[in-house]
Design a protein that fits this description.
235 residues, alpha/beta, 8-stranded parallel sheet, 5-stranded mixed sheet, 6 helices, 30% helix, tRNA_m1G_MTases_N, S-adenosyl-L-methionine, rRNA (uridine-N3-)-methyltransferase activity, Ribosomal RNA small subunit methyltransferase E, rRNA processing
Length: 235
């Protein structure tokens, strides 16, 4: 199986792997000048390239072939409360990238058990998942954790928002039944779900509620399921 390297800026003339990727290429995988490797730029293109130099600090290359990939019709954006265990948040982010997420935002909610997250670690996992799954576009991650209230105020006029929560008595429409005809962001709360106050905020902003099914899911499972459903709807 081909190993992909990630190097932004190739169309702007960056025909080299920078230090972290170069170290993996030259020192770990022991590639030499003349070897052909696969590189992605995170902007929709994959490249077959031939190394002209190979050191742990920088690997220069010449482009042999370029393959361009179209964007998905609509953006899939997940805004979710991080889990108490940071490893589970990183796992969720990784799997969401494999399934086609475009953007991830981490929320603080009234019932959140974790309000601080090493977003640099999460982004590193997301980039690794992009390379592993050979996706052409780099996923976005908001650098700061944001409160649900501030997120809604910021995004309500920019993207369709949906809020997923458990309501056994009056289950809302299933997410699979929405029409995927525009960029969509789904909000998912912490293990204790959204508070009544937060649900009232969503109602006041006329954000439709959706269900992910009849069962209670862990936060990270709900995030992965939501991304998968939204991607399937636009296939």
């Amino acid at each position: 199986m081909s190993v992909y390297f990630y190097q932004p800026g190739i169309p702007d003339g960056k025909h080299f792997l920078e230090e972290e990727e170069a170290n993996h290429c030259a020192r770990v995988l022991r590639h030499k000048p003349g070897d052909i490797i696969q590189v992605m730029d995170g902007k929709g293109s994959h490249y077959s390239v031939q190394l002209t130099t190979a050191t742990a600090r920088q690997c220069d290359f010449s482009i042999l072939e370029t393959r361009n990939f179209p964007r998905d019709p609509y953006m899939v954006h997940l805004a979710i409360s991080p889990t108490k265990n940071a490893d589970r948040t990183e796992w969720m982010a990784e799997k969401c990238v494999e399934l086609g997420i475009h953007k991830l935002t981490l929320l603080t909610c009234d019932h959140s058990e974790r309000t601080r997250v090493r977003t640099d670690r999460v982004l590193k996992k997301m980039i690794a998942a992009m390379k592993q799954s050979m996706r052409a576009y780099a996923p976005e991650l908001d650098a700061e954790v944001i409160s649900m209230d501030d997120f809604i105020d910021k995004m309500q006029d920019k993207i369709r928002l949906c809020i997923a929560y458990v309501d056994m008595k009056n289950p809302p429409m299933h997410l699979k039944d929405i029409v995927m005809d525009q960029d969509t962001c789904i909000l998912i709360g912490p293990e204790g779900d959204f508070s009544n106050r937060e649900l009232e905020v969503a109602r006041n902003h006329k954000i439709p509620s959706v269900s992910l099914g009849p069962y209670r899911l862990r936060t990270e499972t709900a995030g992965v399921a939501a991304v998968h459903i939204l991607q399937l709807l636009q296939q």
